[in-house]
Amino acid sequence: MLIALAEPEGYRLEATDGEIGRCRDFLLDEDQWAVRWMVADTRSWLPGRKVLVSPAQLDTPDWSSRRLPVRLTRAQIEQGPPLDADAPVSRRYEQGLNAFHGLPDYWLGSGLWGDYPLPSSMIGAREAMIEPAPLVPEAPDSAEPVPARDDGSERLRSLRELMGYGVLARERGADDAGEVQVGRVDDVIVDDAAWAVHYLVVDRSWLPMSTRVLLPVDRVDSIDWAERTVHTHAGAEQLKDAPSLQGDAPVTARLAAAVDEHYGRPHHAGGEAVSGT
Fold first, then answer.
1. What are all long-range contacts of 54-59, with beta carbons under 8 Å and residues at least 24 apart?
2. What is this structure's pTM?
3. Mean pLDDT of the 238-262 span
4. 156, 174, 208: which is the final residue of a domain?
């Protein structure tokens, strides 16, 4: 189903043998518009550590009870490759973490999750092991080679950081038209099975009674992280006239279909089971 992802910040995280903390953030792949990692706030349990959990390691979320079950033990999480709280998430670190948990690398293959249709299908026999796997060596000469184009963290961005970015649309909807700001990013709408981002929620008013509309991510041209702006090739009037969200109402299948029709695009798969948080 579709869920508003900014809302689960603070959701309780439960490993198979006890609570591990709260959900703090999500890391987005801006190239393929997918949630690659959840960032866990482990508080006093693992101070100074940034703990990442793959969507493949999340059991079925309980949105009504604000719970995100994690298919790992506390020991598996604690003994994973360490990453400083302020360190960027490099592709090399992702490789080491995947190797530790027995997960395939999502960037190897033709689909959103490599050769796997959903992150849940990436779980293999190794994820149930009691003893942790040995860490992947950090030395460049012994670590798995990383293609130069993938060696970095620029494709993974914080959802928390994206909130509030200005949305710039083409003033007249033409390729050579100038841009005008039409709102700010207020949320993202995600399919919680594939963890694919379908829409940005754009707050297009600075008034107390704001209007929030959905912008399909395939209408986004680029994100300028330095200038804190999102650029779309949708026309300003088209975005302003898009179907709006009513208060905290969920994103229903009917609304999603209306939004897709408004932008002249095929309706996304799986829209029949759509809800909010």
1. 54/98, 54/101, 54/103, 54/119, 54/122, 55/119, 55/120, 55/195, 56/103, 56/113, 56/119, 56/120, 56/122, 56/123, 57/101, 57/103, 57/123, 57/127, 58/119
2. 0.83
3. 87
4. 156
